[in-house]
Design brief:
five-stranded parallel beta sheet; 14% strand; single chain; 17 strands; Rossmann fold
Amino acid sequence: MPPRRPQVEWPPVAVPGQGLRSDRTVPSGDGGTAVAGAGDGPRREAGPQASEAGDRAAASGEEVQASGLGAGDETGTGPHVARGPEGADGPANPGGSASRGDQAVSEGAELLTELRAAVGRYVVLPSPEALTAVTLWVAATHLQPVLQHAPRLAVVGPTKGCGKSRLLDVITETVHRPMITVNTSPAVVYRVIGKNPPTLLVDEADTIFGPKAGDKEDLRGLLNAGHQRNRPAWRISGPEHKPTQFPTFAMAALAGIGNLPDTIMDRAIVIRMQKRKAGEKIAQFRSRTSVPALHRLRDRLDAWLTPLAESAADLVPEMPVQDRAADTWEPLVLAADLAGGDWPGLARAACSTMTRYEADQDEETALKTRLLRDIRHIFAKRDDPEALRTHDLIEALRSDPEAPWAEHGANGLNAYHLANLLRDFDIKPANVRFSDGRQAKGFTRNKFRDAWERYCPEPSAAANEPGSPRQRGPLAPPSGPVPPAPPGLPSGPKRAR
């Protein structure tokens, strides 16, 4: 029989013209009560153990570490837990007795390692950090009832065949209450999200948000609002046409070709998939043999995290990032801290590396998009010739006083810089014979057409698009043998290249 999900009471949603109940109590798992105020999440009035630990902390001025989770240390292998508001601390032993708490740490770390191996067995992720992030995101879905934020998992790639759908297949069998769809509407999502929401899994998300998908602002608004708890959507509903609030809070994974809208990407753990190289091996995913073993992992995750969920609601992990990035990554870091072992350090390293990469890509993307626009303007000023010499194109770019190209690099934009900036768009210089009979390195106009249409379309062409997708380069994928199957997973599926 599956363990009972914790009943954590969140502050009510503010309704115009109605007051909020000031304080109310709900049962607590450590012998005390949780007090929920109108302006914050559940606070714990500690039971005997937690009260004693809090008194010691108040006397020494030190933070209280939950003994069942392992103490944080300088190596980063233990959980890093900050105290909650008004001195509210987690229970001294969220797993029960001291021996049970130690067992929970060992079990959680081992279980996450098995889950990581299971994901890596069927899919080549773009980096070890991405594999860590996916593993922890799956674990975080089982803590959904006590989370303040529900990070999105954006699984994107430049083309088909990068493993996006296969990754969605694997995590579907391991997340909490999966609901997978290849297309959906806001009305459906509004009605399936409740107090115990499912984990939304949307494949082919590019068909929802792409330039030919039409107006999907309602769905994008729903996904944006659902990143944070207590952001309901109000609709007129029922035969009496009463204003009705629909919850939006739910974990969600979206897979598709190209970038999702910026507002979703900004709230997501971004996994940039790539096609596998010849030497990168995976195991075949087959429902009959693979799914039962993944379900056993899912059930073990739920059995491990459910008893800890109420305690986890009071923990505030130390984060290496701030603002929205911290909101997005906190559930993953929290799951890692609950596991202990090497996972707290792995989680924070993945958080720092992947958020820094996305920030760098934003700046580089803006520069590349500016380059495409400027080159299109130069071709237009010269009556759209079939090709331009590399030397002439560079001189025209550098002569624009409002553009950054004269100061790009140490001595301004050169042929190497130009080729490097255009490489991700598959635009390369070639030997071109011009109308005067001379042959020189240059760029043909036809090579730019696709990139212009995708990344900087004319205003008339972009009028109906919900957002302009932006090119972002992938992290280098790892190579090596197929990861060994964790206990419970079949070791015999045929390997495919």
